[in-house]
Amino acid sequence: MSLTVVGSVAFDALETPFGKRDKILGGAATHFSLSSSFYTNVNAVGVVGSDFGDEEWAVFKRHTINTDDIEIVENGKTFFWRGRYDYDMNTAHTLDTQLNVFETFNPKLSENSKNARLLFLANILPMLQKQVREQCENAEFVAMDTMNFWISSMKDAVIETVKVVDCVIINDAEARQLADVPNVITAAKKILEMGPKAVVIKRGEYGAALFTEKSYFAIPAYPLESVFDPTGAGDTFAGGFMGYLASQEKIDEDAMRRAMIFGSVMASFNVEKFGTERVDALTHDEINQRFADFKRFTHFEEIPFERATSAG
Amino acid sequence: MSLTVVGSVAFDALETPFGKRDKILGGAATHFSLSSSFYTNVNAVGVVGSDFGDEEWAVFKRHTINTDDIEIVENGKTFFWRGRYDYDMNTAHTLDTQLNVFETFNPKLSENSKNARLLFLANILPMLQKQVREQCENAEFVAMDTMNFWISSMKDAVIETVKVVDCVIINDAEARQLADVPNVITAAKKILEMGPKAVVIKRGEYGAALFTEKSYFAIPAYPLESVFDPTGAGDTFAGGFMGYLASQEKIDEDAMRRAMIFGSVMASFNVEKFGTERVDALTHDEINQRFADFKRFTHFEEIPFERATSAG
Fold this sequence. Notes:
Two copies of one chain form a homodimer. By secondary structure, chain A is an alpha/beta fold. Chain A has twelve helices and 13 strands. A nine-stranded mixed beta sheet of chain A has the order 5-4-1-8-9-10-11-12-13, with helices on both faces. Chain A has a four-stranded mixed beta sheet with strand order 3-2-6-7. In chain A, helix 4 (about 125-135) packs parallel to helix 6 (about 155-160) and helix 9 (about 235-245) runs antiparallel to helix 10. At the A-B interface, helix 8, strand 13, helix 10 and helix 12 of A face helix 8, strand 13, helix 10 and helix 12 of B.
């Protein structure tokens, strides 16, 4: 029961219609590991500068996340992203990106991180994802994310990584772009043909879908009246998904379906406050409550239609 | 067990990336009644010109749709719409609209149509919808559609009609516009506050959601790799939804949930060929097969997460 994630640890500056924050904890590996820590033991692999402070480390410590493989670059500055959301919360407008120590990020995995049963390759340079995957040769289940930037600039390298993972977790626009087809169902099938056993398509407020060679599973999103800050929702989803799978003895179709729900539940909390605030304060009761809500609002009785015969 | 629909009967000319048709049977009342005829006895109320031919009438006859209240205007021409879809099948580009006899449509309901147990007010002038609703005072369940054009130009009149129906069936953009809020969940709640017991939000390839005062139900769309012609999908959904409800003794939450599935199933067939072609040739076995598919691809076991205790 262990899980390693490799990805960014960052400071975010955010403006939304509901408020702003100048410098809060962010990054894919942060959101992922925080979310998955509710289900399993997590090793985070990343890099920060010496500006990364006690308050930030405390978030990881509170959730017993192993940060031994988060490298600290003395006199370096942590990756910084500034973004803005308008009322259409589906689109982040990037105002500033300072890669800083992340620009030369070269993940160094301890034996402990290498030997995790599950591995998540968050959105980093695809060649690095592949190198990390090869270092974790005993991992039972490896998933990856990527982004439009890599698909545009080095699709071949993205595909080389897709070939060596068990599961791809991306959003619908990325799936269409990667498979180069307009239909998302066809796109998912084409990505499956590249090698992975499973493809998870994240659709934001419209939910998520899981594709395997022989099955299809789709769920709506948790119904939220206010989305406060969507930053990190995708990584929080992936953290719930992978974290839950790490807690299960068998990683089969049934477990993956429940993992989709737990992923969606975690993402639904993440967007309710800025950054990591909401998930940081989450309880298992709250999680299981929303899991039960999902069952309630997707359930229907399977009664085929039978044409009534005339009376008399 | 009967259902009346009031709306347009039309000729459509269509261009899609997959082909074109110069003049095929269309219109909201057509798609709705064809879809609902698989579940119940349907009365269609509309108007056509003398150019409406044997081939068109044959579609209604084949499905035992009562066309007594489809008025024929001698020397008049039937409502004509020409549209184009690009690869983004979610958006119809209107190239030409000739209202013809539909411009002065004044629905005339026979006693039989007035006494139907269920009534569907397809997208027509909201004042006409209200007049029809008032003529059917004994109807047990009345639903309506509308469109962005009426919401922009006469929102008050739309709301006056919303107040006197049991259910509003619209797409997500229309719901946001009608309630004047960006969030679709909040929009649905605001529409419920206007009077109806239920609001159904159609989201095209993303599925559909049902809102009542005390419950929420959401489903993904049937996964289709090729959408051939989306014209009439919304009315076909409403036809399956209302037709199925008409077949049920009790119109309660459980029945409405199944009706959402049957509506989605009917819409999924509708888009597979031009116009009414696919639904016209449909069988109950095919319908029940897709209903069962829906159960299969939305099912998960409800097992809350329990943190495992350490071994030993």
